[in-house]
Amino acid sequence: MAGEKNSEFVPWLEKYRPKTLKEVVGHSQIVERMEAYVKSKNLPHLLLAGPPGVGKTTCVLAMARELYGSAMNECFLELNASDERGIDVVRGKIKDFARTIPMSDVDFKLILLDEADALTDDAQQALRRTMEKYSTNTRFLLSCNYSSRIIEPIQSRCAVFRFRMLEGKDIEEIAAHIAKGEGIDLDQKATDAIVYVSGGDARRAVNVLQGASALSPHVKEDDVLALSARARPVEIEQLVGTAMEGKFVEARKILDDLMLKYGMAGEDVMGQIYRSVMANSEIGQRPKAALIERIGEYDFRMSQGADPRIQLEALLAQMALAGKK
């Protein structure tokens, strides 16, 4: 039964992680290039850059599994650079693994450095030299969110793969696959809610789906939104529309209801307002540009410690004034 599976709370991120490159959803061009590397049994150092939860680590693991098979544990090393980010790790663990000969029919081993943009400058300089010295028998795969934080000498030694946020249809495919495997009843509204709250992040989508299904195998839109502390898009549209009509007091009451009903943080409300304004075709280009500038300003203030409630109400006041004009 689906309820019995959910009660064990198996981590679906690992259970449903693609085992081969063909199972990877989205990023078709990147997958094709990686499949070509597997077929030729040769590849350069790789730099995988992109937002979190879009499949960077998954693609690397699938490629390593296809390259080495049962010898993967001996020929593949995965490190999280955000945990082990100092120069000692590069000089010790990485160097010791890189200098040994691979025990497989592939001529090189793989080292995956996840969150490589968290490495210190000294560690990156040491890594640059290590990549150069042991390139004959070891390939380095660097995964990061911000490629600009990787020093230029390392970037120039790597083939760069840039990952983008997953599209809505990709998230739907992942959710449908898991729902089928777990015997979950997932209607279209719930699926749309998962796509909305995920924002193109497959990791978030899977976690939300697992959390929502823990209580019942019949996942509904309200379950998804309540778990992720997100309001319905139509409710945010109502908030923005009321404010743009110059009805500040009414908009403030809607804001109160949303934050009380969903327990939303100020940053989450701001993010949803931004998405609603961008998607609103009734707002002209110049007013929309002015509103986005204001949203950015108040979002920055909150990130610097300003009171979220005051900043949100100030934003609604600005929108009400803009609407009157």
Order of helices and strands: HHHEHHEHEHEHEHEHHEHHHHHH
Low-confidence stretches: 1-7
Sheet of most strands: 5 strands, parallel
CATH domain class of the largest domain: Alpha Beta
Averaged pLDDT: 87
CATH topology of the largest domain: Rossmann fold
Number of strands: 7
CATH architecture of the largest domain: 3-Layer(aba) Sandwich
Provide keyphrases for this structure.
alpha/beta, Rossmann fold, Helicase, Ruva Protein, domain 3, Zinc Finger, Delta Prime, domain 3, 5-stranded parallel β-sheet, 17 helices, about 60% helix, globular
Per-chain topology:
Layout: H1 2-8, H2 12-15, H3 28-40, E1 45-49, H4 56-68, H5 72-75, E2 76-80, H6 87-98, E3 109-114, H7 121-133, E4 138-144, H8 152-155, E5 158-162, H9 168-182, E6 185-186, H10 188-198, H11 202-213, E7 218-219, H12 221-228, H13 233-244, H14 248-262, H15 266-279, H16 285-303, H17 308-324
Parallel strand pairs: 1-4, 1-5, 2-3, 3-4, 6-7
Helix pairs in contact: 3-4, 6-7, 9-10, 9-11, 10-11, 10-12, 11-12, 13-14, 13-15, 13-17, 14-17, 15-16, 16-17
Describe this entry's structure for a reader.
By secondary structure, the chain is α/β, with parallel strands linked by helices. It has three domains: 27-162, 3-Layer(aba) Sandwich (Rossmann fold), CATH 3.40.50; 167-228, Helicase, Ruva Protein, domain 3 (Orthogonal Bundle); 233-324, Zinc Finger, Delta Prime, domain 3 (Up-down Bundle). The chain is built from 17 helices and seven strands. Strands 2-3-4-1-5 form a five-stranded parallel β-sheet, with helices on both faces. Strands 6-7 form a two-stranded parallel sheet.
